[in-house]
Amino acid sequence: ALPILDSEVSGHLEKLLLAIVKWVKSPPAFFAGRLHKALKGAGTDEYTLTRIMIGRSEIDMLDIRAEYKKLAGYSLHSAIKSDTSGDYEAALLKLCGGDD
Fold first, then answer.
1. Is residue 94 predicted with pLDDT exceeding 70?
2. Judging by beta carbons within 10 Å of its beta carbon (0-12, 13-18, 19+), is residue 96 exposed, middle or buried?
3. Residue 89 is inside which H or E element, if any?
């Protein structure tokens, strides 16, 4: 968190401003974090996963994959493979590209 935000704003506005700062600093790291959150724990946030994978697949997916591996300690490809199945899994893996 940013100290200036801690004392001046809270709630949804604080979350929004922090997301903007993270995105401005590094879009691939921002999206890797969102993907990690969508894939970890019980259940998968399919909306977020699908939106990011489709939206970023032709823009900076290689960079996102690298950031994901730094963040999670394993590849985005392996995370998708373990959390999804069937045609949905196949489509996401195509969008993801190779396994790092």
1. yes
2. buried
3. helix 86-96
Name the token pair of 73.
């300690």
Give the whole-angstrom CA distance, residue 98 versus residue 93: 8
| pLDDT surpassing 70 at residue 4 | no
**Contact residues for 79 (Cβ-Cβ < 8 A; gap 6+):** 35, 36, 39, 68, 72
* Cα 54 to Cα 60: distance, rounded to the nearest angstrom: 11
**Structure tokens given for 54:** 């489709």
- The sign of the torsion formed by the CA atoms of 20, 35, 31, 49 equals negative
**Alpha helices, H only, 42-85:** 46-56, 61-72, 76-83
Contact 18, 1 (CB under 8 A): yes
- Tell whether the model's pLDDT for residue 9 goes beyond 90: no
